[in-house]
Amino acid sequence: MSTPVAIAGGTATAAGDFLKRLLKGQTQALERAPDWFTRLRSAAVDRVGALKVPSMRDEEWRFTDIAPLTGRAFEPVQTAPTLSQADIARFNIEEATHRLVFVDGVFAPALSAGVDGPGLQVTTLAQALAVRTPGIEAHLGIHAGYQDQLFSALNTAFLRDGALVMVPPETAVAEPVHLLFIATRKDGAYHPRCLVSAAPGSAVTVVEDYVALTDEAYFTNAVTEIVVADNARVTHVRVQRESGAAFHIGRCAVSLGRAAAYRSVAVALGARISRLDHCVTQAGSGSECTLDALALIGARQIADTHSVIDHGQAHGTSRQLHKCIVGAAAQAVFNGKVLVRRGAQKTDSAQSSRNLLLSPKARVDTKPQLEIFADDVKCAHGATVGQLDADQVFYLQSRGLSEAAAKSLLTYAFGAEIIDRIPITTLKARLGEAVLANTAGTP
């Protein structure tokens, strides 16, 4: 089912043309989809027609110019090339026995190793919807908020398939689950979707991984919803290593139950322009969340991170460390908001934004933000922006390192603090190598 789209404003602007081109392939429906799913997609199409493309005139986007994205002609992709295991070998995570692979947005069963049974479910949304798997309707499209978010609405309008991870009660999954999204096509538009549901008392580690087999420009528009029930634990590693010419817009919405724990490590290395909205709602008392992130960019890249930690209940704890390493003429943006609602007493929150500039043309816009409506809380935030310490560089030179090697080592150490928090040995080593390679030859 589809609805005619009237672009907000009614004029043939570049932004309007951008949306019209993207919506060309939206009419393809999902076979055997339940009625509520069809209604969800249709409602999302209506919202795309009502919402406007964000610009630097909007407060939430005032540091990030996405005109290079909206000025290009991206086309929805319905088919994907056939890849072999050898083609994706460098992206494999040895510890992950459960893996779902999507190529150009299309599920690749030959490359995947999912589990679909009465216990742990690692499967596709299409397969789960076809057999009417319970528990999906209560969460899909609920947490990400497509009603007032254009790119989330666009993702939901194209919702046909995606990754589904459901962990049953009191079950601890020892091996990480790897959700791998591969882009191969120039000027393609992809809308990856993930839903992770951890039942009470369960535990799981999920790796959400965006990679490319092309150096060309394309558009990834990803939405992830994570539900952590009472006393459950979810560790979430999100890696964005797209093509350097690509555009990546992502939204991750997390809901925490009573005494639930969510730990996230997000690493952004690729894309010409990337944006991640990371929103955590502490809906149960005594919940915990930790958000660690690293953006390592150069050339003319833009990496924008907006986070919201919403403390809605008492005795909540949150910790956030966001680091940026910015070289050449790149720009990093961080806007981190911690909201403590009335009644969320005994909240304990700390937020830190630390940024390293490697060149005179590099730029960081950082805005840590607290909004507190309770009176018995402990909250702190801070931000630093600077260059490498000259004394530290001199010290390493006095120990026999060249100036370039000294700067490279210090830059690597700055980023390695976040990489070291990834609890998966193979992925940690691989990303550590990528950080080292990107910091080699630091000016």
Give descriptors for this structure.
single chain, 443 residues, alpha/beta, 2 domains, twelve-stranded mixed β-sheet, ten-stranded mixed β-sheet, globular, disordered N terminus
Could you characterize what this model shows?
By secondary structure, the chain is α/β, with parallel strands linked by helices. It has helices at 14-22, 35-50, 67-70, 125-130, 150-157, 390-398, 403-419, 425-439, and strands spanning 75-76, 98-103, 106-107, 115-116, 121-124, 163-167, 177-183, 188-190, 193-198, 203-212, 219-228, 233-240, 247-256, 261-268, 273-282, 288-297, 302-311, 317-326, 331-340, 348-357, 363-372, 378-386. It folds into two domains: 77-396, no CATH class; 397-443, no CATH class. Strands 1, 4, 5, 6, 8, 9, 11, 13, 15, 17, 19 and 21 form a twelve-stranded mixed sheet that branches. Strands 3-2-7-10-12-14-16-18-20-22 form a ten-stranded mixed sheet, covered by helices on one side. Strand 4 (115-116) and strand 5 (121-124) form a beta hairpin.
